[in-house]
Design a protein that fits this description.
Layout (H helix, E strand, L loop, with lengths): L10 E5 L9 E6 L1 H13 L5 E7 L7 H10 L6 E4 L10 H18 L4 E5 L5 E2 L2 E5 L1 H21 L3 E2 L3 H4 L14 H15 L2
Parallel strand pairs: 2-3, 2-4, 4-5, 5-8
Antiparallel strand pairs: 1-3, 6-7
Helix pairs in contact: 1-6, 2-3, 3-4
Length: 199
């Protein structure tokens, strides 16, 4: 299907310990939120895992998304995959999002069959420059996608990392754009991810 494009499309891939084989590998898949907490997780897991990230503006609904996943899944054996997608691709319907998630999970299962996989819920959105207020419409849209993803995860027996709840009622964690997080918020998200990974 054709992809509704955003003004800026981007892809960020980072692999630590690419030349090493002595520790298990963790892959964080997500968007700019995952990119923000990557360093927190990577530092905490030093000596335990080599951490990689695949962060992108591409929605799972787009056909190219599987090509992006293959960049790392076809090159490295991952023991853990922490997977999120949901804040981008507003031009897709909920049914298209569900179908895209199912395709992505099928692809991950086929290309990383030995990996322990975790689904991560997407985060809420606040009003830009007025972060004391939730962006109610956008957050409801995120919550709807989270519910759909949680149903798919449950059907596949995948654990869910709830990144929505720990920050939802905390405007002090948000940067001024209402989407991204300040240092305190990044630490909360990173600690939540670590607790799930190590649980």
């Amino acid at each position: 299907m054709a992809k509704p494009l955003e003004y800026i499309e981007w892809l960020d891939v980072w692999v630590a310990g690419a030349d090493k084989t002595d520790l298990p590998r963790l892959l964080l898949v997500g968007d700019s939120i995952a990119r923000s907490y990557y360093a927190h997780v990577d530092k905490a897991l030093e000596g335990k895992h080599y951490c990689a990230r695949l962060c992108t503006s591409t929605c799972v609904c787009a056909a190219v998304y599987l090509s992006e996943l293959s960049l790392l899944l076809d090159e490295y054996p991952f023991a853990l995959i922490h997977f999120n997608n949901g804040l981008h691709g507003g031009g897709y319907t909920l049914d298209e999002y569900r179908a895209g998630l199912e395709r992505a999970w099928d692809f991950i299962a086929a290309h990383a069959p030995a990996a322990r996989c975790i689904w991560a819920a997407s985060t809420p959105v606040r009003r830009a420059a007025h972060v004391a207020d939730l962006n109610v419409e956008r957050t409801a849209w995120v919550a709807e996608r989270n519910r759909a993803a949680a149903e798919i995860a449950a059907a596949r027996g995948l654990p869910v990392d709830d990144l929505f709840t720990p920050v939802c009622d905390h405007p002090e964690y948000f940067s001024d754009d209402g989407v991204h997080y300040n240092a305190a918020g990044v630490a909360v998200l990173g600690d939540t991810v670590l607790a799930t990974l190590q649980g």
